[in-house]
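Lab meeting, item 3. Inverse folding demo.
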């Protein structure tokens, strides 16, 4: 369960923003969307490789 402590004189908007960040980091929504349809293991591996290559290209661009 995600718990967000509201600090003194903190607006609800800021607390909600912190909650959304924590929720996004857990990956619950991403996993739920992934489970809506079956994905073959070969397709899953292929997508992971494509994503990893994309991330590597971004890192190479930043370091260059």
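The presenter then showed the designed sequence:
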């Amino acid at each position: 369960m995600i718990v967000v402590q509201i600090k003194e004189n903190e607006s609800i908007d800021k607390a909600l923003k912190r909650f959304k960040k924590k929720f996004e980091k857990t990956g619950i929504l991403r996993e739920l969307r992934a489970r809506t349809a079956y994905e073959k293991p070969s397709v899953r591996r292929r997508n992971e490789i494509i994503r990893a290559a994309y991330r590597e290209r971004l890192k190479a661009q930043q370091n260059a």
